[in-house]
Write a structure and sequence with these properties.
27% of the residues lie in helices and 24% in strands. It is α/β, with parallel strands linked by helices. The protein has one domain: TIM Barrel, CATH 3.20.20. Strands 3-1-2-4-5-6-7-8-9 form a nine-stranded mixed β-sheet.
Amino acid sequence: MDNFDQEIADKGLELPVVEEFYTLQGEGFHMGKAAYFIRIGGCDIGCRWCDSKMTWNPQLHPLVPIDTIVANALKTPANAVVVTGGEPSLYNLEPLTTRLKEHDIDTFIETAGSKPLTGTWDWICLSPKRQSPPLEEYYKMAHELKVIIYEDEDYQWAEECAAKVKNDCILLLQSEWSRYEQNIPAIVDYVKTYPKWNVSLQAHKFMHIP
């Protein structure tokens, strides 16, 4: 991200918004929960299987004042907001979460943990990536650990990460979507063999909702 604007990231008063919408949480521990989603542009990790590559370059997305983002969320009945990306840890999210908390909205984030976390969060979903491992501090903060299974080596990566999180952290394995049919039998067998893990499905894709 050669054109990444560090000043914008540091202030956090405007964010490059890819999309924002009210829907159901499609995956992870909170699957099925209604929430307002804010997808932020910009990612310095670049997973080859990423299904949101349009988020990678923040310059392609309009800067939206956080007051506008919060106002949009308040137009819905949502009592929870999910911030995702891209990689949201690239930005100062303290101003956004402060505004949301003023309206008693629960704040959730999904992050690979590649940069220090800012903001106040009720739920942290850590989705670690092998090519850009999380900062160590994330392992003790995470409420859920969601590891994407693309190839067999990812199971070992999942175990390495699971060894670092808190005892009460929810452990989730989720197939990369394009390999779902190929991967799900092995994931099911793995969870049956190691029942500390749970299967995470991308239910929103099965339901054909955003």
